[in-house]
Write a structure and sequence with these properties.
Number of strands: 0
Number of helices: 4
Strand content: under 5%
Distance between the termini: 87 Å
Length: 99
Amino acid sequence: MLTKWFLIIGIIAALPLAGGCGNMFFAQNDTPLDRNWGRSYDAAKYSQILNPAAQKNLAPVTELDGEAASRNLTKYQTSFEKEAPEPSYSISFGNIEGR
């Protein structure tokens, strides 16, 4: 008789545990987050593309002359040669006033 009660209590205790192991009792519905996953990244990427077919155009760029391009390249390369500013440290002890 006692083993019968242990068996019944064991089965009753095992049912919620078995139900928690999987999603067999509840149908899983797609949430709006699941349906739109990754769309903000794609929207940001596509909004930055001016001409999506630019890779198909193999003609050389003719809008910028050589002298202006050379100056731009030199300015870009020398922009990395600047030294970092000295770090400044300050120590504060709160609002201390001499009275």
